[in-house]
Amino acid sequence: MSSRRTRITEEEMNELISKLQNLLPESRRRNTSRASASKVLKETCNYIKSLHREVDGLSDRLSELINTMDNDSAQAEIIRGLLRS
Fold first, then answer.
1. Which phi and psi (to 5°) does residue 10 adopt?
2. How many domains does the chain have?
3. Non-local CB neighbours of 41 within 8 Å, separated by 6+ positions
4. Is residue 69 a part of any domain in this protein?
5. Strands (E), the chain
6. H or E element at residue 42
7. For residue range 54-84, what is the model confidence (pLDDT) as tens digits?
8. What are the residue boundaries of the BHLH domain, all occurrences included (predicted)?
9. Rama region for 7: left / alpha / beta (φ>0; ψ in -120 to 50; rest)
10. Among 31, 35, 37, 69, which is disulfide-ready with 76 (CB 3.0 to 4.6 Å)?
11. DSSP for residue 17
């Protein structure tokens, strides 16, 4: 592995920040012009945290659902098959 670092120009950095901003739902809804890089990065972190919370909540709900199902039911097998994929 090379110890050289690839330098990113300011223009490339601005383009990457702009692309990242376009991925954020809040930014798309507001349809605003370009925000500062620090604001985009902060919004990105907050969005990722909210996605983690959503995944955790869905995982908990799925666990509860599986626990209430008959282990031999066709539905339980379908869910287990999807989880293995």
1. -60, -35
2. 1
3. 17, 20
4. yes
5. none
6. helix 37-68
7. 999 998 988 888 788 777 778 878 887 887 8
8. 1-51
9. beta
10. 69
11. H
Structural domain of 63: 10-84
Q: Cα(32)–Cα(37) distance, rounded to whole angstroms? A: 14
- Give just the sign of the alpha carbon dihedral 28, 14, 45, 43: negative
**Single pTM value for the model:** 0.69
In a domain, 18, yes or no: yes
Determine, yes or no, domain membership for 5. no
pLDDT of residue 1 exceeding 60: no
Residue with tokens 């050289």: 4
Task: Quote the distance between the C-alpha of residue 9 and its chain's center.
Answer: 27
CA distance 60 to 55: 9
